[in-house]
Specification:
It is a single chain. The chain is α/β, with parallel strands linked by helices. The protein has one domain: Spore Coat Polysaccharide Biosynthesis Protein SpsA, Chain A, CATH 3.90.550.10. It is about 40% helix and about 15% strand. The chain contains nine helices and nine strands. Strands 3-2-1-4-7-5-8 form a seven-stranded mixed beta sheet, sandwiched between helices. Strands 6-9 form a two-stranded parallel ribbon. Helix 5 runs parallel beside helix 8 and helix 7 packs parallel to helix 8. The longest helix is centred in the C-terminal third of the chain and has 25 residues. The two termini are about 35 Å apart. The C terminus is likely disordered.
């Protein structure tokens, strides 16, 4: 079934240097989409720039939250808003141009045959620009770690540029997940795989931000390492329980 009402969700905190250009490029690249900016009350007035945009109230929307509480929380709020307003697909996208707006049509188009389309750096045709060697190594090792520990058949599990069918978000309970940062991206992709949803990776070139400040931190990386191990441990414990007579009786 072809997607007819896609919504691009863009979390922001102090993205005044990028948000107007991003909105313009997204609306040009994908004329079928609406955009929801989820702003954590940015002190640099990012939200004011959104409401001043010519498309505001038509294709551009703003959800303002009371303060900064993390990427995962912002996306959960955006997912809930999308489902309440009957969009049939939701795209996750950063505000810093690391995710190329020009790839939106390909990402959304991939939903014609899949539940989740991932904008991937690590499939043929994908790539990264402006990253130091150390960060490239961390990303590669991190994805290998996730794939190994969770038995996840995805090359770019930490990717943040994704398109979901709304039915898939509802099925995995994405609006009620708990994690943040990279961990949030991993959790939802893993849950989609566990639920047997159809997942495809679409090549993109990831470009490191040139304006504004990165939100990446060592705490976000540590959260991902710990939570991935916890999910695997709980998953194995659950499967072990189901394999016992007592576990089967409670099904």
């Amino acid at each position: 079934m072809t997607v007819s009402r896609p919504l691009v969700v863009v979390p922001t905190y102090n993205e005044s240097e990028n948000i107007v250009d991003l909105l313009d490029q997204v609306l040009r690249a994908a004329p079928v989409v609406d955009v929801l900016v989820v702003d954590d009350s940015s002190p640099d007035h990012t939200g004011d720039l959104v409401t001043a945009h010519p498309g505001f109230g038509d294709r551009v929307h703003l959800l303002t939250r009371p303060g900064k509480s993390g990427l995962g929380a912002a996306y959960r709020a955006g997912f809930g808003w999308a489902l309440e307003h009957d969009y049939d697909a939701v795209v996750q996208m950063d505000a810093d141009f690391s995710h190329p707006p020009s790839r939106l049509p390909a990402l959304i188009g991939a939903l014609d045959g899949h539940d989740l389309a991932i904008g991937s750096r690590y499939v043929p045709g994908g790539g990264i620009e402006n990253w130091a060697l150390s960060r490239r190594i961390i990303s590669r090792v991190g994805n290998l770690y996730v794939a190994t520990v969770l038995s996840l058949p995805v090359r770019d599990a930490t990717a943040g540029f994704k398109a979901w069918r709304s039915t898939a978000l509802a099925k995995i309970g994405a609006a009620s997940s708990q994690s943040n940062g990279y961990c949030f991206q991993i959790e939802n992709t893993w849950q989609a795989s566990r639920e047997g949803l159809s997942v495809v990776e679409v090549p993109i070139t990831f470009i490191d931000r040139t304006r504004g400040q990165s939100k990446m931190s060592s705490a976000i990386v540590l959260e991902a390492i710990i939570r991935v191990l916890g999910w695997r441990w709980r998953d194995r414990a659950f499967l072990k329980h189901r394999s016992t007579p007592g576990g089967m009786l409670r099904e």
